[in-house]
Description:
By secondary structure, this protein is of the alpha+beta class. 26% of the residues lie in helices and 25% in strands.
Amino acid sequence: MNDLLELKGQFQHSKAQQPGAPELPRGQRVTAEKLRSLAADLTRIRDYWEEQDVSFDPLVSAHYRTVVAKSNRIRRVLGSDGNASGHIVGARFEGEGAETHHVITYCVAADVLDESIDVLATCANVVDERFAGAIDDEGLRRVNAGGLREDAGIKKSVFAQIIRDAHYVMRFDVKTVAREIDDWAVVSIYDVGYRDVRSFLAGLGLTLMPDRVLGNAVRLDADEYARLTFRYPYLVSMAVSDISLLTQDDFDIEGPEVASIPDPGDEPIIGVIDTPFDDRVYFADWVEDHNLIPEEIGTEYGDMAHGTAVTSIIVDGPSIEPDLDDGCGRFRVRHFGVAKGGRSSSFGFVRQVKDIVEQNRDIKVWNISQGSMLEIERNSVSPEGAILDDLQARFDDIVFVVAGTNQTTDGNQVKIGAPADSINSLVVNATGFSGRTASYSRRGPVLDFFKKPDVCAVGGDRDRAMHLCVGTGETFKSGTSFAAPWVARKMAYLMQVMGLPREVAKALIVDSAAGWDYEADRYRGYGQVPRRIEDVVETQNDEIRFFLTGTVDEFLTYNYGIPVPIAKDKYPYVARATLCYFPNCDRRQGVDYTSTEMDLHFGRIDNRGKLKSLDNNRQGEEGYTTTEEVARKNYRKWDNVKHIGEAFTNSIRERKAYDTGMWGIKIRTTERGDKKLGRGMRFGAVITLKEINGVNRIDDFIQRCALRGWIVNRVDIQNRVDIYNAAEVEVDFDE
């Protein structure tokens, strides 16, 4: 087996080129009739808001032609300063299949509405008088090159941007209908300029206690929700039922417990947030128990079974289920009991998770095997998922491993449930011991796009259940709840024992699951994680696996000096690469949830000094354009996990080696908004090369890297374990 390699070197950075004058896509045109139609929409919206007599600025929803790229959103309409994107307060999808399109909501002042109406009318007159009622892409290019006559009454830059805006928007309206919920609800309110949502709602007649408010989300009972949506339906950005049925199962004790375990030492600690812990188990000394269920509610032993079973895998899984021995040893657990099971408040769960993580910053890996029976929403991430994403964006050294949730006995749930829609978390679905997708699995994607679950692991199934320990006995059950802890163990091992950054640890998990035969699967994510930790870190003798880490400080981050060994003027390899990062996320933005995009390119450097990416990704190249739909489908644009690779088949052939003799990696960084939230954000890239003739070229690769100025470290498992153990030894100095 070959060791994993760490390459340390210098990344180069460069700024993005400034965009040119606004243009229309080739062959497209905008009519004066379309411009007047948009002006009429805004006039009706202005009149509507005047009738509402409210103290906040109007809300306007723009229906786009398709799923629209950031660069194609309106700028001048609804933005007299040319920055309409600065007024965005929400985004959702409407339509199905090829008809799917963005609906983006803006909050703008009344005078901005008036100005937009006037400028659309002026542009319509220009199109009628100068372009016979319709301007095409050639006509707009002539305007950009030569300008407009002085009597046109509008600057050419404004005219050009209005024409481009009008091409991408179909119509404007106001969202005046809110979904019906007849129980407790968690409601997000559009940001219409208030500083405190609680005071704002009090002014609308809803008085709430502080514990029912979290950011711009509030918890309302059925009557309060009905009152809000009857009078102010347009204020509801999103609403979800707050009463969720957890997908855990009841446990039947099968027999007495006979196991034993040594005393804990300095093993890493994993955090578990679940039902309470039953301290009658044999491994109780390995668990620091925090039961957060109020005493007046109380807990019974039956309430403790699920959380205790999950913790049994993390502490002593290889002893309880020897067939799944992962080589990671044992872990200590800090266990937080927050739910009894059955009906529970997702809002309460959110508040407790936030407090728990903020108060336990020494814990780096958290396991959450709680999940909702309800399916995720199409246009919004759940409050539970959003708080996990926020915590992982704020704290750059933690990661959540989350169970993918199960089908219940009626089998009506198709999509995964909260909090498995957390984008930054590592979400785990289940297989049986045979490796087949578990019969109870639920699928992604999230927000019609994000790939969830990320991976899968053994969770048991009808033919063979998972062996677990609860209370004074043992039981056999199946579920994603019991697949997730096996991945949490590996993440903790990679991060805390081997000392790898979380971005690299997550990339290694995903990369090893995908392997050389990856196929997209909505139930399995990138594939099944290998059982043994050695198979996650080490490679076969004919493979070279290395990782790179860095931060993005400008639009372009790159290194074109990776010296992959050449044989007979050819590159005899197939290759794959996985990139992971943890972006800021904003639930208020709906489907435009992640704030930063890192576009991954990896491949050979040709004789012109250009990078030829493995997946033929040409985004950003001069003269090349692609639609948002293609960029999302083919290159996972806006997803925070990128995986590109080739299949290892009998038909594979060597590649041409260019004169440069180099391969390279390039990352293009794009921001949703004007704030550069991604600047300084860390990334981890794991790259694997497989020699198609079975030759071991790792020593040649290491030597070439050293000659190119790379610092190369072998990541030897035993060596890292020895270092960890030495670091944890307490030394007493004699006086």
